[in-house]
Amino acid sequence: MKNQIKGCVRINASGKNLYKFINALHDSDVDCFGQYCRNDVFYAEIYRRDLKEVQEIAENLNIEMTSFEYDTISSTVIRHKKRFGIIAGIIFVTAISLYFSGIIMTIEIQGNSKVSDSTIITALEQLNIKQGTPIKDINFPYCENELRLMIDDVAWAGMHITGNRVVVEVTEIVEKPEMINDRIPCNVVSSQDAYITYTSIYDGQLMHKVGDYVPRGTMLINGVTKDETGHVNLHHAMGKITGTYEETVTFEGNYKIRQYNPTGETFSQKTLKLFSFEIPVSFGKNKFENFTTEENEKYLKVLGKTIPVGIVRNRFTETELSETTYTEEELSAKIMEKIYLYEKNFLDDDIKILERDIKTEKKEESIEYIVTYKLEGDICEQKEILIK
Asked: Fewer Cβ in 10 A, N or C end of the chain?
């Protein structure tokens, strides 16, 4: 470590008066170490401070000497002493690191499902817990209690600091589940005009078997039974009965529709974001009456950490209400997309599509797709037994 601070220089010396040179070094105050001779060349290491004195001794004795300085901390500092930008950069980064280590940089919410992050963030801002707030100014026990009181659905809140990141943990209030009386006497009837394909009875009396055709409303499981003595028993009829049935859905599309389309005119706006402050850095104002917006955020990074300082770019694209005309092929493709979305989003996962028959009806201004499905699924529907 001492050599890193003082600086170490390697010297090579040769000449007729080599041994006089070596003796002169030993008689001087020069710290010389790592010495050895090989092929009439003297090798040694000295400190940088003694280099000038050794060069004078070599010159007086007509000794040819070369020197090489090892890379050390002190040599690096001297080599870059005139590069003020590097020094200023080091000082700036150090100051920034010290500053950001004492303020809130990010806020992380954990444990919430019903309460949104934005609701919790808004409540925290009212308690002055936001990006840029000095950590030492926050009374965490007080804020934890206040946050719980400010949000009705939060039963408990806790906060802790990890570096310059505030982690907010919440436990939400669990509402008392709705009590469903599953012992109310009821029958199970068919919800579709269907052919039965499967039966499984949990309680009650099965009224039809697999293969039977049952119109909508037909009793499938009877909740009223009699024992051998003629005593009437009331049940909450339950079971799983599946059947095949048909369902018809109509999808329509118009050749001409009015919608907002881009005009090609755009306007860009830049904003400098400093924590929660936003400072416009571009001139002009969005004057479009109807438009769509695309936002792009880019934040600075210091020592690998993203800080809440950056540029937010908003791109506004003007739109206007116009009429769009589709060809028959384009319109058919759009209707088929509607059919796909219907089957994906509106048919339950346990419903199987056995057949699909599509009929097309062309009109003057539109096309209709009449889709008849043959489906297989649960056809049970409970119907309460009214007791007088």
From this structure: C
Q: What is the pLDDT of residue 1?
A: 47
pTM over 0.90: no
**What architecture (CATH level 2) is domain 2-77?**
2-Layer Sandwich (3.30)
Strands (E), 204-290: 205-206, 213-214, 219-222, 224-226, 232-234, 238-254, 256-274, 277-280
Task: Tell me which of 10-14, 80-84, 154-158 is least confident.
Answer: 80-84
**65/311 Cα distance (integer angstroms):** 58
Q: What percent of the chain is predicted at pLDDT more than 70?
A: 86
The residue extents of the domains of the chain are 2-77, 106-172, 257-325
Report the CATH fold assignment for 106-172: Ubiquitin-like (UB roll) (3.10.20)
Residue of 109, 133, 95, 129 whose CA lies nearest to 302: 95
Residue 188 pLDDT exceeds 90: yes
Give the pLDDT of residue 81: 54
Four-residue CA torsion sign, 162, 164, 165, 169: positive
H helix or E strand, kind and range, residue 282 = none
